[in-house]
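In response to reviewer comment 3 from the previous cycle, which asked for concrete evidence that the modeling workflow produces usable outputs, we include below a single protein chain processed end to end. The sequence was submitted unchanged, and the resulting structure tokens are shown without manual editing.
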Amino acid sequence: MKISVDQEKCIGAGQCVLTAPDVFDQRDEDGVVELLEETPPPEHQTAARDAGAVCPAAAIAVRD
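The workflow returned the following structure tokens.
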């Protein structure tokens, strides 16, 4: 699995961080997504996939 984020699309909703806090964070100044794990370990992959699915801006891409 490989994850990428489009910070230009991100609206700062924070659903990714709530869903997968080991994979995503938000910048303090504007709430835009920050990717912590581009290739998350198996124990975080389900949460990362779920975070991509719930992102209201479709700013997260998950590829297997």
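Helices lie at 15-19, 42-54. We consider this sufficient to address the reviewer's concern, and the full set will be provided in the supplementary archive.
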